[in-house]
From TrEMBL:
Residues 390-590 form the Peptidase S9 prolyl oligopeptidase catalytic domain. This enzyme catalyzes the hydrolysis of the N-terminal peptide bond of an N-acetylated peptide to generate an N-acetylated amino acid and a peptide with a free N-terminus. It preferentially cleaves off Ac-Ala, Ac-Met and Ac-Ser. Also, involved in the degradation of oxidized and glycated proteins. The keyword Protease applies. Coiled coil: none annotated. This is Acyl-peptide hydrolase. Keywords: Acetylation, Hydrolase, Protease, Serine protease. It comes from Teichococcus globiformis. It holds the Pfam family Peptidase_S9. SUPFAM superfamilies: alpha/beta-Hydrolases (SSF53474), DPP6 N-terminal domain-like (SSF82171).
Amino acid sequence: MTDASALLERLLDTPAATAPAYAGDGRLYALHDAAGSAQIWEWPADGGPPRPRTAHADACAFVAGLPDGGAIFGRDAAGDERVQLFHLPPQGEARPLTNNPAAIHGWGAVSPDGLRIAYTSNARHPAHADAWVMEIASGEARLVADVEGPHELPAWRPDGQAVILSTAPRTFESTLFLVPLDGSPREELTPHEGDARHMNPRWKSDGSGFWLLTDRGRDFLGVAFLVPGAAPQWLHVPDGDVEKLEPSPDQTMLAVAVNEGGYSSLRFLDAATGAMVSAPEHPPGVITKLAWAPDGKCLAFDLAGFSMPSGLHIARPDAPGTVTRHRAPDLPALASWDTVFFPAHDGRDLPGFLAFPQGNRPEAGWPVLVWVHGGPAMQALPNWRPDLQAILAMGIAVLVPNVRGSTGYGVAYAALDDREKRLDSVADLASAHRWLAAREDVDGTRIGVMGQSYGGWMVLAAVTEHPELWACGVDFYGIARWKTFFERTGPWRIGHRAAEYGDPVQDAELLERLSPLNRAERIRCPMLVAQGLTDPRVPPHESEQIVSVLRGRNVPVEYLTFADEGHGFTKRANRRRVYAAVTAFLRQHLLGR
């Protein structure tokens, strides 16, 4: 077996680059974590060596290129998600564009002339993300629409005189509105009946309409062209969600990324007909961002996989393969992962990813860790996870299921855990345990469960609903009680979360039944709990409650806190600490060492 501690150190020290964005002069920006947290790096247009452009302890949230070669980026403080906006000139230091540490500034888009930005801010009221426009040079900003609830500003109209406002009151409902900057009434661009998503709008330069991703009347997101107020004209409708869409600078071609069982497939389409132009070969993995070069000759994208951290790649519509712009150093051979399906209690097959350690199987079979994604409207993807690779190197197999309620398998599948059906997804974890325990290569007495955020709630629900099954549990910032969660989570999240989980008043009885804290006396197994103390989504009180009850009952529990982290562990030093704690915990409770 590989030395897990040494492997973890090596994998944590391996840098990743994500979220590419071209500037108008051809230089490429991206987020790069070589210094320990995601910072802005620049790859020069002439192909010269990359260089860091920011050096902060806290991670940068995004970067967007400007026509003059500069960029806009966002950064919060210690993971509190109250992002501030900054202007990075082509040369020299960044300067702040916003300076309100109490407000969240949501990134929108750069205006067609490159002189203004659109963004959202909840400065007026913490629950409402209003629409703002700012002159980059002067920093002069003005409110263009005050709204109720969370919103985004994904695009400008080509004439620069209006922006698109996107609403998302529920996970699978979003509507687009046109907001003129002259104060005229806003116009609904996507009138429709029933739930449907309208996402990623990209205007045609003549102003006649825009390309977008939508699932109106479908189970999956597809590519369509939409004339404002009319029905979508479908262009590309595969049996899987189209998750990314970017037109080429001359608007003759569309670059898209399609979700195929969690793996991304890059495709180039004819913008007028949707016909496939090419599908460049690339390693199997996950794409999170597409960016066309200003001359339209190539496309940059990031790509991460189970065995590789995210790197930057270049594709050309007329070439069969891709060129790597940034790739991490060569790594040792890592465990391979398979796509699997296991039966649920109601007879349906549930998807997931399964990996076994390298080397000889123990006589009793491998112990297993079941890793549960958050969301819940998310999908476990074949992504880079140093912690899971280290766990495999220890001699512990890993199953990553996509239980009912996960995205990526259609709207109907994602709705299977809604509200009163919430515990059906927890039963899926019991089904995963049953399937694993029946295998000859698994030791059914040594199966643990781990998750983060909503996945942390799933862990707590699993060890309270089915306490006899689990050898141990690892909960990263999970919800212990829905009542206290709704009382303390960020005000801007309450309406959207209530639509998913249940109304904290009208559905109070249901939410109390779904609160693991109320059944914590059933927990038998040792627990590890980790929490960022600036977390605005799942505040520390949730972890503190469950830890307090476990300690009061003398159930073995370890509790790790991080003063400079929010909803996730973004700094390399903190990841090193928490992953070391997880591997030590699993070594004791799944390997008995």
